[in-house]
Amino acid sequence: MNDISFENIKIRPDIFPSKWHYKNLNPEDVEWITGGINRASQLTTNSRLNSSYWKKISLDKLVESYGDAWNYNDQMIICVWDAHQKESEPPIGFISFDVSWHETTTKKINDLFLTINLIWVRPNKRGLGGISARHITSHLILYFESCKLYHPFVALKGLTVFYYADFDSLGGEKISYIIQKNLENMKYNNTWKIRELNFDVGF
After folding, report:
1. Are 161 and 123 in contact (CB under 8 A)?
2. Residue 182: half-sphere exposure toward Cβ, Cα within 13 Å
3. What is the rounded average pLDDT of the residues 70-81?
4. Cα–chain-centroid distance for residue 101?
5. CA–CA separation, 141 and 182 (whole Å)
6. What is the pTM of this model?
7. What is the pLDDT of residues 119-130, one digit of tens each?
8. Is the distance from CB of 29 to CB of 46 less than 8 angstroms?
9. Which of 42, 81, 107, 118 registers the highest number of CB atoms within 10 A of its CB?
10. Quick one: CA torsion of 13, 48, 135, 97, rounded to 10 degrees?
């Protein structure tokens, strides 16, 4: 096999946006993306990939201030805020994930590897059916949809997507299920040109 492996999205800015944000994600859109939401909430959110205000060291301090401690990678982190907040203020939560891929000698993506490391919500923003977690997950899906994983950027027959997550809670299991369903929809709708989906999920 002559495929070459990569794991830094900055190598392929033509495919993977490295400076990405999304503003004013409303409850109706979250319901559409995640398949449900507690309609008592009117939460609207903004997000940014790899915020300069909230690098891993700052997020670790935030997590630890609530008595939590987690190991996670910092390659890709999407932080999410209430739309009324400033980005410099503590986010309501974040998701850490990794993206790597194989590409051919002609620079076509063959295989894509997605790993969800951690989704964390501030304890005072939890509850109401996981509204904050659904918002965070929706921002992740919107980032995925912004990646140009279709012709002419992928192999002629499409790419194989390998998705991995290992959560230890029912909430994490639900989030992982939502991500899987959206990847299936992206395959069906040709948002990404996917030849095959492989899920490796542990709980």
Report:
1. no
2. 23
3. 93
4. 16
5. 7
6. 0.94
7. 999 999 987 778
8. no
9. 81
10. 50
- Confidence category of residue 80, pLDDT binned at 50, 70, 90: very high
The answer, yes or no, to whether the previous bond of 17 is cis (omega within 30 of 0) is no
Token readout for 49 is: 């990939």
Contacts of 199 (CB under 8 A, 6+ apart): 163, 180
- Reported in sequence order, the residue ranges of 45-170 that DSSP labels E, i.e. its strands, are 45-49, 76-82, 93-103, 109-121, 159-166
Please give the structure tokens belonging to residue 188: 């069906």
Contact 47, 141 (CB under 8 A): no
- Mean pLDDT value across residues 23-37: 94
Residues 75, 127, 84, 54, Cα dihedral to 10°: -20
